[in-house]
Specification:
single chain, Arp2/3 complex 21 kDa subunit ARPC3, mainly alpha, 66% helix, two-stranded antiparallel sheet, 4 strands, globular, 202 residues
Amino acid sequence: MKKYELRELVDGAVMTALAAVLCYIRIIRLPWGGSVTLMSMLPIIVYSIKYGVKKGMLVSFAFSLIQLFQGISDGLFSWGLSVPMLAACILIDYIGAYSVIGIGGIFREKGIKGWICGAVCAGFARFVMHFISGVVIWKSFGELWSGFKTDNVLLYSFVYNGAYMLPEIIFTVVGAAVLFGVPQTRRIICGKTSFRPTASDQ
């Protein structure tokens, strides 16, 4: 195995582990469900920026398996879902929702705008997966908080998932911008495999 390939594997393992740890650091817990973590998507996005979307997707898939195991430990199999709905939940809410984070490096050669757009795309793609799950699998409706109630499954899923995904995306974007703004971290992330900032990006 080449030294560079070994470094890819090590970096992937470290970023996946870091993302998993950050998932446990919840900044906001919403009373109706869902929580905002301490930028748990950012390590996967950083890896995708450094090594590209294809390898980023592989790492984010590994991250999705960790999230699935966590869901199982939290009682996924006891939520009363039928076998088809359980399979759909695993594919959409876990494998799909967390694997798409790997697209975060899609604009990695576009400087800080690319980093920010990539983070937004990754977060939005994850939101879409959770939104689809809410509509197709959970089909929830009713009251989310005092004063807001809806019988519209689409609206319920949009608000429910948007309430935690929007701040999650904002925190991730801020984190990406901060990392880009520090020359030392930008140099480590960009290296020889990604974007090299021009004078206008300094």
